[in-house]
Amino acid sequence: MSRKKARKPAHLLKGKYSQKELDGRKEKDEEIASLMTKEDLENVPESLNERGVKYYKLLLEQLKNIVVITDLDKPSLENLSDHLSIIEEARIHRKIHGNLIETNYGLKPNPSLKIIKDYTSSYLSLAKSLALTPEMRQHMQKLTEDSISQFASDDNVEYLNKALEKRLSGNG
Questions:
Q1: Residue 113: Cβ within 10 Å count
Q2: Of 3, 42, 129, 137, which one is least surrounded by beta carbons within 10 A?
Q3: pLDDT tens, 124-143?
């Protein structure tokens, strides 16, 4: 199964395209680019409770290092923060009431256990999509290293090592 080739931006197109086609493509490119802003990320969603706000700010701080995060990721970030808040509340409830709860029909498992299980599973899925799991961070690091090593020739590495030695010895 072959993947569809990525669309070239309008300014890179060559060949027999009418000005109308180029203008149409350029307009679509600008529309897509306008979606890739980071302006709204800093605004904490009002739907989050106190714990959710705390997690939202923490996650946003972590994700600032990832260049590709944009306003389009805000709903995922909001859901992730909400999940962490719910998990924390369920853990507090379980700590106070224990793993088993006394009911009119005897001891029953604390419902918080199911909430923790379900929301943790969902959290892991969301965290993976935002590259927040150790596995995904390791994968991203490997991709970065591979892309860097592809440009590293023996000459480049030798030059960089000499420059580093100079800087460390205080001569640079």
A1: 16
A2: 3
A3: 988 888 877 777 767 766 76
Whether residue 84 contacts residue 55, with contact meaning beta carbons closer than 8 Å, is answered with yes
| Residue 47 or residue 141, greater confidence | 47
100 contacts 109 by C-beta, under 8 angstroms:
yes
Quote the CA–CA distance of 77 and 87 in Å, as a whole number: 15
Q: Is 170 left (phi over 0), alpha (psi -120 to 50) or beta?
A: left
Q: How many CA atoms lie within 13 A of 36 on its CB side?
A: 8
Q: Is the dihedral of CA 90, 93, 98, 101 positive or negative?
A: negative
Cα(170)–Cα(172) distance, integer angstroms: 6
Name the nearest CA neighbour of 97 among 112, 87, 85. Answer: 112
